[in-house]
Amino acid sequence: TQLLARLEGRSSLKEIEPCLFADEDSSVLGDILEFHGPEGTGKTEMLYHLTARCILPKSEGGLEVEVLFIDTDYRFDMLRLVTILEHRLSQSCEEMVKQCLGRLFLVSCVNSTQLLLTLYSLETMVCSHPSLCLLILDSLSAFYWIDRANGGDSVNLQECTLKKCAQFLEKLVSEYRLVLFATTQSLMQKTSHWTEGPPPAFNHPGEADVDYRPYLCKAWQRVVKHRIFFSKQEDFKTSNQFSLVSRHLKSNSSKKHVFIIGESGIEF
Fold it and tell me: What InterPro entries has UniProt attached to this entry (predicted)?
């Protein structure tokens, strides 16, 4: 019974967003994905899009499952999410929006220690909410500089808390068949590539990580199954057109997608 409770209502990547994950095996549950890119490239907007897909009722094309959103930047925009929901509901009455938001759990964290303690407390919640399907962390790199300063000269101390977070997230995702989306910001990019034109990472999908510089702990690098690189289309600096390269780290396969951000959210 406990096992059935764990697996009931879980959704696969393919179900969460067919446009992005059409090639994924819909029978595979439990996955960790990293959304990586500079600020202003649509990472958080994509999270709102995926959240809306999950919490919308099945009658409106959603999955009608629960989402836990961990906000570490204190930038979560509830009004923006409500706007997206209103555009996607055929009859956007206040009661329908409230029902959707009833499937969303929002948690804020101010430092990596609080994040770790929050994660430790999640197991009970996941057990008692069998329809909780998606875990979102925006962003995992928020405390990087603070942890680095607090750790002094010791890399082990700098990375200690995040390492524990990564290990526990892996356990949580694999045991309860959750999908985890975590954003990280490009802190170590070559600025010249971004100012003079599109970075090499987006010119050739097969070389999607050419300009990617891993700076988070190895424990996190090890658990990530997909990495999705976000960028703003350089030819459309004044427009709302963006691109992403989705890279499956196990098969080393890549796929490029272009999307726009409108008032109603993301459109592919």
Answer: P-loop_NTPase, Rad51_C, RecA_ATP-bd, XRCC2
Position 6 scores a pLDDT of: 52
Q: How many domains does the chain have?
A: 1
Length of the chain: 268
Interatomic CA distance for residues 241 and 235, integer angstroms: 9
Residues above pLDDT 90, as percent of the chain: 63
What CATH number is associated with residue 199? 3.40.50.300
Give the residue ranges of DSSP H helices in 63-154. Answer: 78-88, 94-101, 112-120, 122-128, 144-150
pLDDT at 209 (0 to 100): 43
Phi-psi region of 202 (alpha: psi -120 to 50; beta: other; left: phi over 0): alpha
Within 10 A of 104 (CB to CB), how many other CB atoms are there? Answer: 19
Q: In which domain, by residue range, is 166 found?
A: 2-267
Is residue 242 packed enough to be buried (19+ CB in 10 Å), middle (13-18) or exposed (0-12)?
buried
pLDDT digits (tens, 9 = 90+) for 205-236: 444 444 678 888 899 999 999 999 999 877 65
pTM: 0.88
- Map tokens 């490239």 to a residue: 41
| Burial degree of 180 (CB within 10 A; 0-12, 13-18, 19+) | buried
